[in-house]
Amino acid sequence: MTAVHLTAPDIDPNEVAYFEKLAHRWWDEQGPFWPLHKLNRFRVDYIRAQLCRLFAREATATRPLEGLRLLDIGCGGGILSESMARLGAQVAGTEITEKNIRVSQLHADWSGLEIDYRLATAHELAEAGETFDAVLNMEVVEHVEHLPDFLADCARLVRPGGVMVVATINRTPLAWLMAIIGAERIMGWLPKGTHHYRKLVKPEELVQGLGEQLEPFDRTGVRVSPFNRSFSFTRSMAVNYMMLFRRNAEADNR
């Protein structure tokens, strides 16, 4: 099969090439993506709680997200997409590298899960007029070029009354020290070059980029323990953080 590479103003070809080299390692929990596997368990609890609160679902149910249409932007190897599908959501996952789509689809087939994986950009989906109850934008915004354009496209994908969850790293000296120097260069938790300081995103930049269409509804910092490799909530958003945005139910979604 001939490799396919999507092009769009907000796609950095260097980022595409970097993650293509690691595509086969997505589901190796002892490999370079082990932090994502641990983080996934933590963030799934947050997403489930928030979606159940906003859509009046019982969080303790086996499949509390049944009937919700959900988009996982930059789904990678499908780690989060599969977790959401197991909670009952109708999941679409998008990627811009063909290798990742193949990895995620093969693993979903092996897991017996129906997930709509697509080689597509957020811009293409938005132009096609697609909308979702929930859009998950997890660890993606710090890897794109032209952030305002990307956020505008993502906002268009949220239906009236729907939500977007964003997880990323703040652009602060502490984040540089912890996430880049500490996690990548000293402890080796992430491959060197995973993050670039200039691309890290401040919370106010998210609010500015989404503010006209989506309003902030919840926010929390995420603390990482170097001692037991665990994640916990914190008031400080100086390093890792998650934010939930909501579109007004009366919005026309244009």
UniProtKB/TrEMBL annotation:
Gene3D superfamilies: Vaccinia Virus protein VP39 (3.40.50.150). It is an enzyme of class 2 (transferase). InterPro entries: Methyltransf_11, SAM-dependent_MTases_sf, UbiG_MeTrfase. Signal peptide: none annotated. Its EC number is 2.1.1.222, 2.1.1.64. It catalyses: a 3-demethylubiquinol + S-adenosyl-L-methionine = a ubiquinol + S-adenosyl-L-homocysteine + H(+); a 3-(all-trans-polyprenyl)benzene-1,2-diol + S-adenosyl-L-methionine = a 2-methoxy-6-(all-trans-polyprenyl)phenol + S-adenosyl-L-homocysteine + H(+). SUPFAM superfamilies: S-adenosyl-L-methionine-dependent methyltransferases. Residues 71-166 form the Methyltransferase type domain. Keywords: Methyltransferase, S-adenosyl-L-methionine, Transferase, Ubiquinone biosynthesis. Pfam families: Methyltransf_11. Pathway: Cofactor biosynthesis; ubiquinone biosynthesis. S-adenosyl-L-methionine binds at residues 43, 74, 138. One of its GO terms (molecular function) is 2-polyprenyl-6-hydroxyphenol methylase activity. GO terms for biological process: methylation. Belongs to the methyltransferase superfamily. UbiG/COQ3 family. O-methyltransferase that catalyzes the 2 O-methylation steps in the ubiquinone biosynthetic pathway. PANTHER family: METHYLTRANSFERASE (PTHR43464), UBIQUINONE BIOSYNTHESIS O-METHYLTRANSFERASE, MITOCHONDRIAL (PTHR43464:SF19). NCBIfam families: UbiG. This is Ubiquinone biosynthesis O-methyltransferase. The gene is ubiG.
